[in-house]
Sequence to fold (218 residues):
Amino acid sequence: MKIGIIGAGHIGGTLTRRFAELGHDVVVANSRGPETLQDLARTTGATAVDVSQAAQDRDLVVVTIPLKNVPDLPQGLLGGAAPNVAVVDTCNYYVQRDGRIAEIDGGETSSAWVARQIGHPVVKAFNNIGAQHLAEHGREAEDPARFALPVAGDDLTAKSTVVQLIEDLGFDAVDAGPLSESWRQEPDTAAYGTDLKREDLERAIREQQPVRPAQFQD
Ligand SMILES: NC(=O)c1ccc[n+]([C@@H]2O[C@H](COP(=O)([O-])OP(=O)(O)OC[C@H]3O[C@@H](n4cnc5c(N)ncnc54)[C@H](OP(=O)(O)O)[C@@H]3O)[C@@H](O)[C@H]2O)c1
Fold:
């Protein structure tokens, strides 16, 4: 696949490396320009590009930057992407980093907010796993240590593309429902950062209560 990664930090750098290892054609961008990504490009085989080019002709685009910076992404970013491009949002809302975002405080999922900012539907994935675990904990399908990652979204074709990538990276994928239900995998839920096996993750997603933790409420 032709994959564009927007954000080259903990998660973006890890996905760049892992997707390139799987044989995908990967471009990667940050906020400071491709000249600052030469080490990552050299060690992964990915191509560093300006963020304005990161979705160009891509089948899949991953947005993996601090949530507060999503509105700064170039207008029309996805205009040159492949038809039916799948867009993955890994972002999480942390008030300490992102400041207050009124719509999310009001109950909108952070991924629905991202989708509105970029003007394109998103699939929420890779938001609930630490970058180091994403890099190191992929396992073969029959390995008892293999755990699962949730995938939420409304576009079933895009979702199945992301499910396949997750499986290829060495994790089971659990359908966590439509994007409106993606709060079930947001920070401070049972599914967040807990590396659960498939059945446990399915139960965690199903039984999660829609209570915003105190630090988001005050
Ligand atoms: N760290 C984790 O383990 C983890 C796990 C799951 C989800 N997440 C979430 O995933 C997102 C990324 O997290 P991270 O830890 O990978 O972040 P990070 O290490 O802080 O890296 C952020 C990356 O985003 C880039 N960036 C910032 N603003 C940009 C813009 N306007 N255009 C293009 N690139 C921009 C930065 O580029 P410059 O350096 O050039 O500014 C940097 O490469 C966050 O929303 C985070 O909450 C993180």
Notes: Residues 6-12, 29-32, 51, 64-67, 69, 72-73, 90-92, 127, 130-131 surround NAP (CB under 6 Å). Strands lie at 2-6, 25-29, 47-48, 60-63, 86-89, 123-124, 148-151, 172-175. The CA atoms of residues 101 and 180 lie 17 Å apart.
